[in-house]
Amino acid sequence: MTAPELDSLRLLVLVGELGSIGQAAAVLGLAQPSASKRLSFMERRLGLVLMDRTRRGSALTPDGRAIAGWARRVLTELDGLLDGAQALRTRHEAGLRVAASMTLAEHLLPGWIGELNRANPGLYLGLQVTNSDQVAVLAREGKVDLGFVESPGALPGLVSRKVAGDHLVVVVSGTHPWARARRPLTPAELATTPLVVREQGSGTRKTVDAALREAGVGPVKPLLELGSASAVRNAVLAGAGPAVISALDVTGHDLVVVAVEGVHFGRVLRAVWPAGRRLDGPAAELLALATRKPS
Protein backbone atom coordinates (compact mmCIF):
# COMPACT_ATOMS: atom_id res chain seq x y z
CA MET A 1 0.00 0.00 0.00
CA THR A 2 1.36 3.44 -0.98
CA ALA A 3 1.10 6.15 1.65
CA PRO A 4 -1.25 9.08 0.84
CA GLU A 5 0.27 12.46 0.10
CA LEU A 6 0.33 14.96 2.97
CA ASP A 7 -1.76 17.50 1.02
CA SER A 8 -4.42 14.85 0.53
CA LEU A 9 -4.46 14.16 4.27
CA ARG A 10 -4.87 17.88 4.95
CA LEU A 11 -7.74 17.96 2.48
CA LEU A 12 -9.48 15.00 4.12
CA VAL A 13 -9.18 16.58 7.59
CA LEU A 14 -10.64 19.86 6.31
CA VAL A 15 -13.56 18.12 4.59
CA GLY A 16 -14.37 16.47 7.92
CA GLU A 17 -14.25 19.81 9.70
CA LEU A 18 -16.09 21.90 7.07
CA GLY A 19 -18.46 19.33 5.57
CA SER A 20 -17.70 20.47 2.04
CA ILE A 21 -15.07 19.55 -0.54
CA GLY A 22 -15.44 22.99 -2.12
CA GLN A 23 -14.78 24.86 1.14
CA ALA A 24 -11.86 22.59 2.00
CA ALA A 25 -10.40 23.09 -1.48
CA ALA A 26 -10.72 26.88 -1.13
CA VAL A 27 -8.77 26.83 2.16
CA LEU A 28 -5.93 24.95 0.46
CA GLY A 29 -6.08 27.04 -2.73
CA LEU A 30 -7.24 24.14 -4.89
CA ALA A 31 -9.92 23.94 -7.57
CA GLN A 32 -12.81 21.72 -6.49
CA PRO A 33 -12.38 19.20 -9.35
CA SER A 34 -8.73 18.80 -8.45
CA ALA A 35 -9.63 18.27 -4.79
CA SER A 36 -12.21 15.64 -5.71
CA LYS A 37 -9.65 13.78 -7.81
CA ARG A 38 -7.15 13.81 -4.94
CA LEU A 39 -9.70 12.33 -2.54
CA SER A 40 -10.79 9.66 -5.04
CA PHE A 41 -7.16 8.71 -5.67
CA MET A 42 -6.55 8.42 -1.91
CA GLU A 43 -9.59 6.16 -1.55
CA ARG A 44 -8.21 3.88 -4.29
CA ARG A 45 -4.78 3.82 -2.63
CA LEU A 46 -6.22 2.87 0.75
CA GLY A 47 -8.95 0.61 -0.60
CA LEU A 48 -11.54 2.36 1.55
CA VAL A 49 -14.58 4.55 1.00
CA LEU A 50 -13.80 7.70 2.95
CA MET A 51 -16.61 10.04 1.92
CA ASP A 52 -20.35 10.17 1.38
CA ARG A 53 -20.99 12.69 -1.41
CA THR A 54 -24.48 14.23 -1.67
CA ARG A 55 -25.98 17.35 -3.20
CA ARG A 56 -26.05 18.93 0.24
CA GLY A 57 -22.35 18.42 0.85
CA SER A 58 -19.81 15.80 1.75
CA ALA A 59 -19.47 13.87 4.97
CA LEU A 60 -16.84 11.41 6.11
CA THR A 61 -17.79 7.75 6.44
CA PRO A 62 -16.87 5.94 9.67
CA ASP A 63 -13.69 4.77 7.93
CA GLY A 64 -13.10 8.32 6.75
CA ARG A 65 -13.43 9.69 10.27
CA ALA A 66 -10.93 7.13 11.56
CA ILE A 67 -8.43 7.97 8.79
CA ALA A 68 -8.94 11.71 9.36
CA GLY A 69 -8.22 11.30 13.09
CA TRP A 70 -4.95 9.52 12.37
CA ALA A 71 -4.13 12.07 9.66
CA ARG A 72 -4.63 14.92 12.12
CA ARG A 73 -2.05 13.38 14.47
CA VAL A 74 0.41 12.87 11.60
CA LEU A 75 0.02 16.51 10.52
CA THR A 76 0.44 17.77 14.09
CA GLU A 77 3.68 15.79 14.43
CA LEU A 78 4.85 17.14 11.07
CA ASP A 79 4.17 20.72 12.20
CA GLY A 80 6.20 20.02 15.34
CA LEU A 81 9.06 18.69 13.22
CA LEU A 82 9.04 21.78 11.01
CA ASP A 83 8.88 24.15 13.99
CA GLY A 84 11.76 22.31 15.62
CA ALA A 85 13.83 22.48 12.46
CA GLN A 86 13.16 26.22 12.22
CA ALA A 87 14.25 26.69 15.83
CA LEU A 88 17.47 24.76 15.20
CA ARG A 89 18.14 26.74 12.03
CA THR A 90 17.60 30.02 13.87
CA ARG A 91 19.94 28.87 16.62
CA HIS A 92 22.69 28.00 14.15
CA GLU A 93 22.24 31.17 12.10
CA ALA A 94 22.07 33.61 15.01
CA GLY A 95 25.36 35.16 15.96
CA LEU A 96 23.89 36.10 19.34
CA ARG A 97 20.90 34.55 21.07
CA VAL A 98 19.22 36.78 23.67
CA ALA A 99 16.11 36.48 25.83
CA ALA A 100 14.60 39.37 27.76
CA SER A 101 11.66 40.07 30.04
CA MET A 102 9.13 42.48 28.64
CA THR A 103 10.05 45.68 30.48
CA LEU A 104 13.68 45.36 29.42
CA ALA A 105 12.75 44.33 25.88
CA GLU A 106 10.42 47.30 25.42
CA HIS A 107 12.40 50.09 27.06
CA LEU A 108 16.11 49.33 27.43
CA LEU A 109 17.24 46.54 25.12
CA PRO A 110 16.45 48.33 21.82
CA GLY A 111 19.03 51.01 22.57
CA TRP A 112 21.71 48.49 23.55
CA ILE A 113 21.02 46.34 20.48
CA GLY A 114 21.13 49.40 18.24
CA GLU A 115 24.61 50.28 19.49
CA LEU A 116 25.75 46.67 19.15
CA ASN A 117 24.52 46.48 15.56
CA ARG A 118 26.25 49.71 14.63
CA ALA A 119 29.53 48.28 15.90
CA ASN A 120 28.84 44.87 14.26
CA PRO A 121 26.90 45.53 11.00
CA GLY A 122 26.83 41.87 9.92
CA LEU A 123 25.69 40.46 13.27
CA TYR A 124 22.49 38.41 13.31
CA LEU A 125 20.75 38.64 16.69
CA GLY A 126 17.91 36.35 17.72
CA LEU A 127 15.72 37.81 20.50
CA GLN A 128 13.03 36.01 22.51
CA VAL A 129 10.69 38.14 24.65
CA THR A 130 9.06 36.30 27.54
CA ASN A 131 8.64 36.57 31.31
CA SER A 132 11.55 36.50 33.74
CA ASP A 133 11.07 32.88 34.83
CA GLN A 134 11.24 31.67 31.23
CA VAL A 135 14.28 33.86 30.51
CA ALA A 136 16.06 32.21 33.44
CA VAL A 137 15.17 28.74 32.14
CA LEU A 138 16.45 29.55 28.65
CA ALA A 139 19.71 30.94 30.03
CA ARG A 140 20.22 28.05 32.44
CA GLU A 141 19.69 25.47 29.68
CA GLY A 142 22.08 27.27 27.33
CA LYS A 143 19.35 28.04 24.79
CA VAL A 144 20.37 31.70 24.79
CA ASP A 145 23.77 33.32 25.25
CA LEU A 146 22.53 36.12 27.49
CA GLY A 147 19.29 36.85 29.32
CA PHE A 148 17.79 39.94 30.95
CA VAL A 149 15.37 39.60 33.87
CA GLU A 150 13.48 41.87 36.26
CA SER A 151 12.55 39.37 38.97
CA PRO A 152 13.89 39.65 42.53
CA GLY A 153 15.57 36.84 44.44
CA ALA A 154 18.21 34.22 43.78
CA LEU A 155 18.69 32.65 40.36
CA PRO A 156 20.23 29.18 40.90
CA GLY A 157 22.71 28.09 38.25
CA LEU A 158 23.12 31.58 36.83
CA VAL A 159 25.53 34.46 37.17
CA SER A 160 23.79 37.85 37.30
CA ARG A 161 24.88 41.44 36.96
CA LYS A 162 22.89 44.63 37.50
CA VAL A 163 22.17 46.57 34.32
CA ALA A 164 19.64 49.12 35.61
CA GLY A 165 17.36 50.09 38.45
CA ASP A 166 13.59 50.38 38.19
CA HIS A 167 10.65 51.06 40.45
CA LEU A 168 7.00 50.13 40.21
CA VAL A 169 4.08 52.49 40.71
CA VAL A 170 0.37 52.07 41.37
CA VAL A 171 -1.68 53.45 38.47
CA VAL A 172 -5.37 53.99 37.77
CA SER A 173 -7.44 55.60 35.06
CA GLY A 174 -8.55 59.20 35.47
CA THR A 175 -12.08 58.06 36.36
CA HIS A 176 -11.06 55.75 39.20
CA PRO A 177 -11.81 57.00 42.76
CA TRP A 178 -8.13 56.68 43.69
CA ALA A 179 -7.28 59.30 41.05
CA ARG A 180 -8.85 61.92 43.37
CA ALA A 181 -7.42 60.57 46.64
CA ARG A 182 -5.97 63.22 48.96
CA ARG A 183 -3.79 60.85 50.95
CA PRO A 184 -1.52 57.91 50.08
CA LEU A 185 -2.95 54.42 50.08
CA THR A 186 -2.08 52.14 52.97
CA PRO A 187 -0.48 48.77 52.25
CA ALA A 188 -3.66 47.05 53.47
CA GLU A 189 -5.85 49.04 51.06
CA LEU A 190 -3.64 48.02 48.15
CA ALA A 191 -3.44 44.36 49.20
CA THR A 192 -7.20 43.98 49.65
CA THR A 193 -8.10 45.62 46.34
CA PRO A 194 -8.26 43.33 43.29
CA LEU A 195 -5.60 44.45 40.80
CA VAL A 196 -4.88 43.96 37.13
CA VAL A 197 -1.67 41.92 37.25
CA ARG A 198 0.87 40.13 35.11
CA GLU A 199 0.92 36.33 34.98
CA GLN A 200 2.77 34.14 37.50
CA GLY A 201 6.46 34.00 36.55
CA SER A 202 6.75 37.63 35.53
CA GLY A 203 9.26 39.83 37.33
CA THR A 204 6.68 42.54 37.95
CA ARG A 205 4.28 40.10 39.64
CA LYS A 206 7.08 38.71 41.83
CA THR A 207 8.23 42.19 42.83
CA VAL A 208 4.70 43.27 43.81
CA ASP A 209 4.10 40.10 45.84
CA ALA A 210 7.47 40.40 47.58
CA ALA A 211 6.91 44.08 48.42
CA LEU A 212 3.46 43.44 49.89
CA ARG A 213 4.71 40.47 51.90
CA GLU A 214 7.53 42.63 53.26
CA ALA A 215 4.89 45.17 54.31
CA GLY A 216 3.03 42.34 56.07
CA VAL A 217 -0.06 42.34 53.86
CA GLY A 218 0.73 40.32 50.71
CA PRO A 219 0.43 38.75 48.29
CA VAL A 220 -1.48 40.61 45.59
CA LYS A 221 -5.18 39.92 44.99
CA PRO A 222 -5.67 39.42 41.21
CA LEU A 223 -8.60 40.91 39.32
CA LEU A 224 -7.24 40.06 35.86
CA GLU A 225 -4.08 38.18 34.89
CA LEU A 226 -2.58 39.38 31.60
CA GLY A 227 0.47 38.33 29.63
CA SER A 228 2.17 41.63 28.84
CA ALA A 229 2.83 45.05 30.32
CA SER A 230 0.97 46.74 27.47
CA ALA A 231 -2.10 44.56 28.07
CA VAL A 232 -2.09 45.51 31.77
CA ARG A 233 -1.69 49.20 30.92
CA ASN A 234 -4.52 49.09 28.36
CA ALA A 235 -6.81 47.33 30.82
CA VAL A 236 -6.19 50.09 33.37
CA LEU A 237 -6.85 52.79 30.77
CA ALA A 238 -10.11 51.04 29.90
CA GLY A 239 -11.20 51.27 33.54
CA ALA A 240 -10.80 47.61 34.50
CA GLY A 241 -9.08 48.48 37.77
CA PRO A 242 -5.79 49.54 39.37
CA ALA A 243 -2.43 47.96 38.58
CA VAL A 244 1.19 48.11 39.69
CA ILE A 245 3.49 48.59 36.70
CA SER A 246 6.99 49.80 35.91
CA ALA A 247 7.42 53.57 35.96
CA LEU A 248 8.90 53.11 32.48
CA ASP A 249 5.46 52.05 31.22
CA VAL A 250 3.68 55.19 32.47
CA THR A 251 5.33 57.83 30.30
CA GLY A 252 3.17 59.01 27.42
CA HIS A 253 -0.05 57.43 28.68
CA ASP A 254 -3.08 58.96 30.40
CA LEU A 255 -2.54 57.18 33.70
CA VAL A 256 -2.73 58.58 37.22
CA VAL A 257 0.04 57.50 39.63
CA VAL A 258 -1.24 56.86 43.16
CA ALA A 259 1.10 57.13 46.15
CA VAL A 260 1.35 54.23 48.62
CA GLU A 261 2.91 54.59 52.05
CA GLY A 262 5.14 51.95 53.58
CA VAL A 263 5.69 49.78 50.48
CA HIS A 264 9.03 49.67 48.64
CA PHE A 265 8.59 48.85 44.97
CA GLY A 266 12.19 49.31 43.84
CA ARG A 267 13.88 46.53 41.89
CA VAL A 268 17.10 45.64 40.09
CA LEU A 269 17.13 44.69 36.41
CA ARG A 270 19.81 42.08 35.70
CA ALA A 271 21.69 40.33 32.93
CA VAL A 272 22.04 36.56 33.47
CA TRP A 273 24.07 33.73 31.94
CA PRO A 274 25.01 30.17 32.99
CA ALA A 275 27.37 29.80 35.95
CA GLY A 276 30.82 28.66 34.87
CA ARG A 277 30.50 30.10 31.37
CA ARG A 278 32.72 33.01 30.34
CA LEU A 279 31.02 35.55 28.11
CA ASP A 280 32.92 36.54 24.99
CA GLY A 281 32.29 38.04 21.56
CA PRO A 282 28.94 39.77 20.94
CA ALA A 283 27.47 38.56 24.26
CA ALA A 284 30.29 40.26 26.19
CA GLU A 285 29.89 43.39 24.06
CA LEU A 286 26.15 43.55 24.76
CA LEU A 287 26.73 43.10 28.49
CA ALA A 288 29.30 45.91 28.43
CA LEU A 289 26.80 48.22 26.73
CA ALA A 290 24.06 47.30 29.23
CA THR A 291 26.25 47.89 32.27
CA ARG A 292 27.93 51.05 30.99
CA LYS A 293 27.34 54.04 33.24
CA PRO A 294 25.54 56.97 31.56
CA SER A 295 27.96 59.72 30.57
UniProtKB/TrEMBL annotation:
<dbReference type="GO" id="GO:0000976">
    <property type="term" value="F:transcription cis-regulatory region binding"/>
</dbReference>
<feature type="domain" description="HTH lysR-type">
    <location>
        <begin position="4"/>
        <end position="61"/>
    </location>
</feature>
<keyword id="KW-0804">Transcription</keyword>
<keyword id="KW-0805">Transcription regulation</keyword>
<dbReference type="Pfam" id="PF03466">
    <property type="entry name" value="LysR_substrate"/>
</dbReference>
<dbReference type="GO" id="GO:0003700">
    <property type="term" value="F:DNA-binding transcription factor activity"/>
</dbReference>
<dbReference type="InterPro" id="IPR005119">
    <property type="entry name" value="LysR_subst-bd"/>
</dbReference>
<comment type="similarity">
    <text>Belongs to the LysR transcriptional regulatory family.</text>
</comment>
<protein>
    <submittedName>
        <fullName>LysR family transcriptional regulator</fullName>
    </submittedName>
</protein>
<dbReference type="Pfam" id="PF00126">
    <property type="entry name" value="HTH_1"/>
</dbReference>
<dbReference type="InterPro" id="IPR036388">
    <property type="entry name" value="WH-like_DNA-bd_sf"/>
</dbReference>
<keyword id="KW-0238">DNA-binding</keyword>
<dbReference type="InterPro" id="IPR036390">
    <property type="entry name" value="WH_DNA-bd_sf"/>
</dbReference>
<dbReference type="InterPro" id="IPR000847">
    <property type="entry name" value="LysR_HTH_N"/>
</dbReference>
